[in-house]
Amino acid sequence: MKTFNQPKPVFAPHGKRAVILFHAYSGSPNDVRMLCRFLEQKNYTVYTPMFSGHGTPNPDDILNESMTIWQNDAKAAVTYVKDQGYQEIAVLGLSMGGILAMDRLTEDDTLIGGGLFCSPLFETSNQVPVNFEKYAAMILQYAALDEEEKNTIMAHVPGKVRQQLAGIESVGQATAAHLSAIKRPIFLAQAGQDQMIDPQTVFRTAAGLSHVPYTLQWYPESGHVVTVGPERKKLEQDVCAFLDTLAWKE
User: Fold this and answer.
1) Full-model pTM
2) Are 67 and 97 a contacting pair, CB within 8 Å?
3) What pLDDT is stored for residue 1 in this prediction?
4) Backbone angles phi, psi at 113, to 5 degrees
5) Which of 158, 154, 156, 157 lies closest to 145, judged by CA?
6) Which of 25, 66, 122, 139 is the most exposed place for a label (fewest CB within 10 A)?
7) Which run of H or E residues covers position 2?
8) pLDDT surpassing 80 at residue 2
């Protein structure tokens, strides 16, 4: 069995400006670790929580959770950072994490701003089920299970992931329907080579944010996980530039 390195949440206290970075579906805080480190260097306090069921070598741990649980996790992350003494918080996320960040922004007007990276709020074609199956087969190599147990898990993945994806899409569409509730500046990042979702979907999100200041950045050479792609450093600079424009009191 291969050695599994357990990813962990990161809370990195620095300046009085706090940023929460949410990871993707089937991902972990490793998705946003490099962006976290970059923002730390700019004196931002950064929290990269981990959603329930994630960060283990068994894909069933994710598939047995629900989008409702992850919405509660996102809400709890904001509460956690506030409990550490930070009152001004921005929230951003990758893919599903971006949906959850935007969901928070429609619900919590204490947040100072935020946004998404390659997150489909509106209904669009996607390759999530097939990619999750590949992920499941890969991660199970690290699990302390026999072949029969692994085969049983894999047999149930297609049905479970489609059911779970319906919940994710439902929250995305509900968030899209409530974009008018957002009162803070928003950052939108989209990879031009996104193999998971239709990149053009971001323009529908932008159209729904015409009532607030928003920044839309396009990364033509990047794939879906834009935070670790070839234009990662440009993304980091763009996110930081956006954050610097927010109405921080401190």
Assistant:
1) 0.97
2) no
3) 57
4) 160, -175
5) 154
6) 66
7) none
8) no
